[in-house]
Amino acid sequence: MAKAVIFTLGCKVNEVESASLARALGEQGYEVSTKLGYADLYILNTCAVTAEAEKKSRQLVARALKYNPNARVLVCGCAAQKNAQVFAARQNVRAVTGARNKSRIPSLLEAAGIFVDDADKAFDELPLPAAVRTRHFIKIQDGCNNFCSYCIVPYMRGRSRSRATDSVVAEACAAAERGAEEIVLTGIDISSYRDGEKGLAELLGALSSLPARVRLGSLEVRVVNEKLLTAARGMSDFAPHFHLSLQSGSSAVLRRMNRHYTREEYLERCRMIYEFFPRAAITTDIIAGFPGETEEEFSDTLSIIDEAAFAQVHCFVYSPREGTPAAALPQLSPEVKEDRRRRLAERAAARQAAYVDGFLGQTFSFVPEEQKDGFTFGYTENYIRVAVRGNVPKRGRIILKERKEEYCIGEIDHE
To answer: How far apart are the C-alpha atoms of 20 and 324, rounded to whole Å?
Structure first.
């Protein structure tokens, strides 16, 4: 049996697409792995969200060919969309596709050439992955219309397009029947989800009685309103975790980023979430060292970490992306950017510890995800990572007992 490796860099959407491609290749007779190793065929799903991600994407071809110098290589994803010719010139690369219409990749395995599609077509339907995990990710949307001044993704993924509600519900039900305990709705900008007149709130309504926990992927501020929160609260099993994209706590920096909200509007949405879900986790992303960021503007970002009572913050150093408006602005020094990232990370770590400490001794729903070193690891509904000693094969209730650096120790609640 021919062997294929589908190796993925980048976002959760890439991972979902790769899992679907793995099923398609399996149906064509390939033995498929997601880890680099010997294979007859390599499909490399690349990323270009940062300069570092793009560099790693370019290095992937050489890494793969170390295992089999005679293998065929197909490159797809955002880095391939951005620089198809660079990949096409590499040894053994037979075909290059981009970030769009990945469903056609199985038909290109024997093809040669560049097959990058720049058109923004309808949502690209992909099959349910062969293996369904306890936490199952469903891609409901692709593309982005926001054009933040620092971001290259809209140029790579194209304009927003959404999956039909019936199709989302069908996959969610099928995954739940096959053992998924949690469904995560993901996409490039799920806040833009539209199926005719129906948006994200209506999609949650259609999933309201699903026999699995439902969690939302990353959200934009504009979508958080009473309609969405009411729909979420009306579900039989909703995970009150809101990854609410921030990027900066300074309204002036947000304007330069072309983010369409202010600091005050962001905090108001946080207050609204806590009113509906008192135990909610609000997590976010923050960019340190955006062009022109002053120390005063950075102080606004530091202070919002506590004001918003974040459960977790992902801190990034600003990385210029060629072709975006922010790349043409005067840049801060690498030393200033790294110093601010460090200070953000320290404040975020303290805030995360305080968030978790506030729930010690309380009981939560626990969905197991993996077993390691004698523990079962998984997440609570409010996205606290928990380790429970022994084998926990299915979802149950746990009590948070002790906070460690990267997770909590939990015990099964036998009551």
So the answer is: 31
Token pair recorded at residue 53: 């991600």
Helices (H), 28-113: 51-65, 78-82, 84-88
CB atoms within 10 A of CB 233: 12
Whole-number Å distance between alpha carbons of 144 and 247: 17
Domain 3-115 belongs in CATH node 3.40.50.300: no
Q: Can you give the pLDDT at residue 125?
A: 84
Q: d(Cα 120, Cα 141) in Å, to the nearest integer?
A: 12
Query: Tokens 């729903």 label which residue?
Result: 365
The pLDDT confidence band at residue 345, using thresholds 50, 70 and 90, is very high
Structure tokens at 115: 């097959």
- In CATH terms, are 3-115 and 363-412 the same topology? no
For residue range 32-79, what is the model confidence (pLDDT) as tens digits? 999 999 999 999 999 999 888 999 999 999 999 999 999 999 999 999
d(CA 249, CA 60): 36
- CATH code for the domain defined by 363-412: 2.40.50
Q: Are 250 and 291 in contact (CB under 8 A)?
A: no
Residue 369, helix vs strand vs coil: strand
Q: Is 322's pLDDT higher than 90?
A: no
Quote the tokens at residue 343.
Answer: 């200070």
Beta bridge mates, 343: none
* Residues 135-354, CATH architecture: Alpha-Beta Horseshoe (3.80)
CA dist., res. 186 & res. 200, Å (int): 11
Tell me how far apart the alpha carbons of residues 26 and 130 are, in angstroms, rounded to a whole number: 8
pLDDT > 90? residue 163: yes
320 Cβ partners below 8 Å, 6+ apart? 51, 326, 327, 331
Spatial CB neighbours of 177, under 8 Å, sequence gap ≥ 6: none
Burial of 173 (0-12, 13-18, 19+ CB in 10 A): middle
- The answer to whether the beta carbons of residues 127 and 23 sit under 8 Å apart is yes
Quickly count: other Cβ atoms within 10 Å of residue 288's Cβ.
23
Nearest C-alpha neighbor of 95 from the set 116, 78, 124: 116
206-242 pLDDT, tens digit each = 999 999 999 999 999 999 999 999 999 999 999 999 9
